[in-house]
């Protein structure tokens, strides 16, 4: 029997009797990171990294959560388990499972670029590698994040000079904090939507250094913050809350901004291509670094990416999952 199998409830380890990122309630869940499509409520027990735990508790409440450090080995039944940096968001992990000498790695979501905020991705040697393929098309090629930072700051400065508030749409966990580290506070104040500021507070409390922000709550007077940039979830940009700021421009920060159709659908003034997932070359880089012969492709452009891997010499197959939910475009 394989160390890991794929079931209707999620990725299952028979030897350890646990699931990885299950999408239905199970007795024991190992969680790669805190995004809603990977960390769900209702599990009997949770295991995650100590860095991911605060956000998971913030999102899921008083859950029965045990933590491990990166690289710490746990014996769970007949399985040897360890968590390794995935580079996706702070605390995100790949989960290594070894049973009778057979090694699997469930990578969750990951990125191979060091963003300066998350613990950088570390390849883990294995026989079997479970990979996402959110951006598994050759068209997806990311620019250096310093170039993207320069583009965002130039756009913000232009908005400020024109007397407009700059609204930048991004996911509240991971992307928002990464963007904070790229913004130039010399241009103006950085305001944050409540959903983002709540996550900022959790990360600051665990010692993650983030630039100064101002909560754009109901008591904030927009005219007192000329030339500001507002970080907000995309769903909040076309709302009464956003309209109270008067003249503004909107932009979205996502890997999906590489596709013109999605840029048009978003109806923003600008789109900045920056993602917390690997691009085409990043996916191939990560897979090659594992040394794995067997690749299991989950959410994203699964069929196309798996076909390319098969034609390139890997034993690749598509595995249907429930990862990449309604928030996928915001989180990317």
Would you kindly provide a written description of the structure presented here, covering whatever features stand out?
The chain is an alpha/beta fold and 332 residues long. The protein folds into two domains: 5-139 and 276-331, Ribonuclease Z/Hydroxyacylglutathione hydrolase-like (Metallo-beta-lactamase, Chain A), CATH 3.60.15; 145-272, Metallo-hydrolase/oxidoreductase (Rossmann fold, 3-Layer(aba) Sandwich), CATH 3.40.50.10710. It contains nine helices and 19 strands. The strands form three sheets. A seven-stranded mixed β-sheet has the order 7-8-9-10-11-18-19, covered by helices on one side. The protein has a six-stranded mixed β-sheet with strand order 1-2-3-4-5-6, with no helix packed on it. The chain has a six-stranded parallel β-sheet with strand order 14-13-15-12-16-17. The radius of gyration is 20 Å and the shape is globular. The two termini are 35 Å apart. The relative contact order is 0.15. The mean pLDDT is 95.
Q: What is the CATH class designation of the largest domain?
A: Alpha Beta
| Span of the ends, CA to CA | 35 Å
How many domains make up the coordinates?
2
CATH architecture of the largest domain: 4-Layer Sandwich
